[in-house]
Amino acid sequence: MSVTAAKGFTAAGVAAGLKDSGAPDVALVVNTGPRLAAAGVFTGNRVKAAPVLWSQQVLGGGQVSAVVLNSGGANACTGPLGFQDTHATAEKAAEVLGVSAAEVAVASTGLIGLRLPMDRLLPGIATAAEALSPHGGEKAAIAIKTTDTVHKTAVVEGPGWTVGGMAKGAGMLAPGLATMLVVLTTDADVPAADLDTALRAATRTTFDRVDSDGCMSTNDTVLLLASGASGVVPGAPEFAEAVRAVCDDLAQQLVRDAEGASKDIRIEVVNAADEDEAVDVARSIARNNLLKCALHGEDPNWGRVLSAIGTTSATFEPDELNVAINGVWVCKKGSVGEDRERVDMRYREVRITADLAAGPHSAVVWTNDLTADYVHENSAYST
Amino acid sequence: MSVTAAKGFTAAGVAAGLKDSGAPDVALVVNTGPRLAAAGVFTGNRVKAAPVLWSQQVLGGGQVSAVVLNSGGANACTGPLGFQDTHATAEKAAEVLGVSAAEVAVASTGLIGLRLPMDRLLPGIATAAEALSPHGGEKAAIAIKTTDTVHKTAVVEGPGWTVGGMAKGAGMLAPGLATMLVVLTTDADVPAADLDTALRAATRTTFDRVDSDGCMSTNDTVLLLASGASGVVPGAPEFAEAVRAVCDDLAQQLVRDAEGASKDIRIEVVNAADEDEAVDVARSIARNNLLKCALHGEDPNWGRVLSAIGTTSATFEPDELNVAINGVWVCKKGSVGEDRERVDMRYREVRITADLAAGPHSAVVWTNDLTADYVHENSAYST
Q: Cα–Cα distances in Å, from B368 out to A226, B49, B267, B280?
């Protein structure tokens, strides 16, 4: 499972003492080849953490030998010294693995604005290197958890090749990726440019359409590494679909583990004039705090859905809008529709369908409800 | 005080039975002249309640004889029948007051998607007309409350003339106005076009810069009525300033009464390239749920401020950003600044200053923290 499901990879997860709890906090993923092709997608936030700035440079070369990941500190907003810390992290991994630091990606997660304790992180990298194993994927997935309640892995098998991956993320999930770190690996023989195409297509309709709390992280990183160890060159469509499926699986796991959430909310906008407008409307609904509170209270408050749609510039006529909640069309033609008492809100998944009656396009965005637990978790996080 | 502080106005507030609680729910404000000049500003939401659609038509004529306001139902998303209800409301007021229905504005607030009980509202209008008094302003302000814990009024005196007003609003407060109904009155002799200029300028920097929870209402209405009863024609700048001051006072009262809030958060963006960018950045900070939770927990989490700034397209360099919380510059040059332990977070007001180091412009937006009480209040509102 995880990042070692595909051949040509080893991984490890160890406790280096970055977390006060003593839980694992440093992960290492190593591509043992024969290929070192890689692609990456990073946060759209203009305030980027040091490891994002570093890894963007590394990925520019299209080759990655290893990825060092740490929880227990985001190394964001830490200035030039923070960037030096990331550089030293890559150098240390390069040294113990015998590879070039220019091929070592780094990803960090945790609190913003704190320097990493390098006196613990650097020995932790050496310890992780000693623990590397072709069965280390689960341990790596565990070591990148922050407020995640479970570790997250996924695998899809192709004919003769495999795509596997791990993810962390439980809050600050929003477009342009979430506070999430994701490493995908494959033993398919795919060059970097084709990895990039497949990864961007996959993230666009999976991770980028998870909008748990509207907050965009400084550290989001999704990497795809290909070892070529299977010796198989897959067809582009089937490979792209496998990458998409793994991303989709991991994205769903992120939604289900969102901080404090009691509902997973699937928002589908249909009959939009184009896909971008469908996404805009879905995101506006996903970010409406009043609606998210109502759904937490199992109240099918379609008025708040219409109110959210009305703030967008998408193509629609207010008196042509239709809204279904869990299959009941509670709003028809912008007004009262079927009896809202018929909506069964008892289950964790809530399905909202918003029909713009403006064209043939659609999109799905996932979000969560807004709960007192979310408030508690995020008002006490750094204390 | 309130809408009867200025000469030439009577008002009333009565209980018509729209609210199950039996609390007052119908207000009437009547301009007794000699002038009937008026201006209005309405929600930017494209899904507009029936009374907004009606009152926009009325205000097009620049004359308003009376305003009927009701709590206990928003009459939004109620289709053509809902519009007929608003029309009938105006006709009833016109009948009992002996004025033209085309000069009767209507404003409603409460739940979306429910028809108003006209068999109670219409008799309520007759009762309110009988109760009209030049001292009725307070009662009118009380009758428009929904989840407001207090009624809200303000008065500013000019030389020989007065501007007074009332407001309701305690949630769904966002730009393009809040779920708020505001009626301002003045006995100054000002034509409709000049009222419009003064009102738009005032709301742009007051009500439009309150962003309590990012949710824009379908019903927001701000009206300014001038009776000319003082016989004084004020200078345009002094009149504009009086209108602004009343709006600012009422806007501050809305912030302080926001649903479930424990903190009033003043976000000032300074050194922006232009005012629009300053507002965009301030609003992005105001809408960051993670930050709002942190401030609720009295955690001066400047990393979440930077993360919010980074999602905007405003002009700035990430490593030139500075952030102060309650006067302590906890972030300098995009990195760790003064000791965050020095920030005193015990008081209700929190002041955030974000320095973009990009120009001479600034703007202030007010918001509130995100609390478990907000979640509770809004997950149980309609049940």
A: 47, 26, 10, 17
Partner residue facing A217 (CB), from B46, B74, B307: B307
With an 8 Å Cβ cutoff, are A331 and B288 in contact?
no
Other Cβ atoms less than 10 A from the Cβ of A174: the count is 27
How distant is the Cα of B279 from the closest Cα of chain A, in angstroms? 17
Contact A216 B79 (CB under 8 A): no
Residues A250 and A268 grouped into a single domain: no
CATH number at residue B154: 3.60.70.12
For A175, nearest residue in chain B (alpha carbons): B311
Q: What is the extent of the structural domain holding B108?
A: 2-256
pLDDT of A175 above 50: no
Average pLDDT, chain A: 92
My answer on whether A20 and A100 are in the same domain is yes
**Does B326 carry a binding-site annotation?**
no
Same domain, A144 and A69: yes
Banded pLDDT at A173 (limits 50, 70, 90): low
Are B285 and B222 part of one and the same domain?
no
Same structural domain, A240 and A302: no
| Chain A residues in contact with B371 (beta carbon < 8 A) | 375
Give CA–CA dist B310/B383, Å, rounded.
39
> Known catalytic residue: B179?
yes
Last-in-domain residue among A239, A256, A273:
A256
Q: What is the pLDDT of residue B110?
A: 87
Is A298 annotated to bind ligand?
A: no
Nearest CA in chain B to A44: B311
Minimum-distance CB partner of A303 among B111, B289, B296: B111
Domain end marker among B256, B285, B316: B256
Which residue stretches of chain B have pLDDT < 50? 175-178, 382-383
Q: Where on the phi/psi map is residue B216: left (φ > 0), alpha (ψ -120 to 50), or beta? A: beta
Domain count, chain A: 2
